[in-house]
């Protein structure tokens, strides 16, 4: 069960669907890492104060966790390694962004966070697909005999 969560991936027969997953995973992962996460490591005082205003305990720690979730989680998602835990990190961070930081904002202000949230949830459900590192290391030889 734990191994399946860490490196498992669902079997998808269609090569075209697996290529689509690959393209989406790489795009979501890299844009999350470099557009959103890289500027948060190390977290600035401004970002820490944003976390503090959300009433998180230990805002410095949670600011680091958000930065790591976006940057490291994005890179791991892009390469398809630990895709489900990475997608979970991205989803949690984007859930906080959409429903806490932007809770009172109009939809267009939270739309990007929601897109990343739901893309993360999709990869949490299906894993990396055939063309991710997870598929190589999991017991998917029966699923994906390369």
UniProtKB/TrEMBL annotation:
Chief localization: membrane
Keyword Cell inner membrane (UniProt): no
Spans traversing the lipid bilayer: 12-34, 54-79, 115-133
Keyword hit for Ribosomal protein: no
Cellular component GO terms, alphabetical: plasma membrane
Compartments, record wording: Cell membrane
Membrane topology: Multi-pass membrane protein
Keywords: Cell membrane, Membrane, Transmembrane, Transmembrane helix
PANTHER family: INNER MEMBRANE PROTEIN YPHA-RELATED, OXIDOREDUCTASE CATD-RELATED
The family this protein is said to belong to: Belongs to the DoxX family.
UniProt protein name: DoxX family protein
């Amino acid at each position: 069960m734990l191994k399946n969560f860490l490196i498992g991936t669902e079997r998808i027969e269609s090569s075209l669907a697996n290529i689509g997953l690959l393209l989406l995973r790489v795009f979501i992962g890299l844009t999350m890492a470099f557009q959103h996460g890289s500027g948060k490591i190390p977290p600035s005082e401004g970002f820490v104060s944003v976390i503090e205003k959300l009433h998180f305990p230990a805002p410095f720690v949670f600011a680091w966790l958000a930065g790591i979730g976006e940057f490291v989680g994005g890179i791991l998602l892009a390469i398809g390694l630990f895709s489900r835990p990475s997608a979970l990190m991205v989803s949690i961070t984007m859930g906080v962004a959409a429903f806490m930081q932007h809770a009172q904002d109009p939809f267009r202000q939270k739309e990007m966070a929601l897109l990343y949230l739901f893309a993360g949830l999709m990869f949490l459900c299906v894993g990396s697909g055939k063309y991710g590192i997870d598929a190589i290391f999991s017991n998917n030889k029966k699923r994906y005999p390369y």
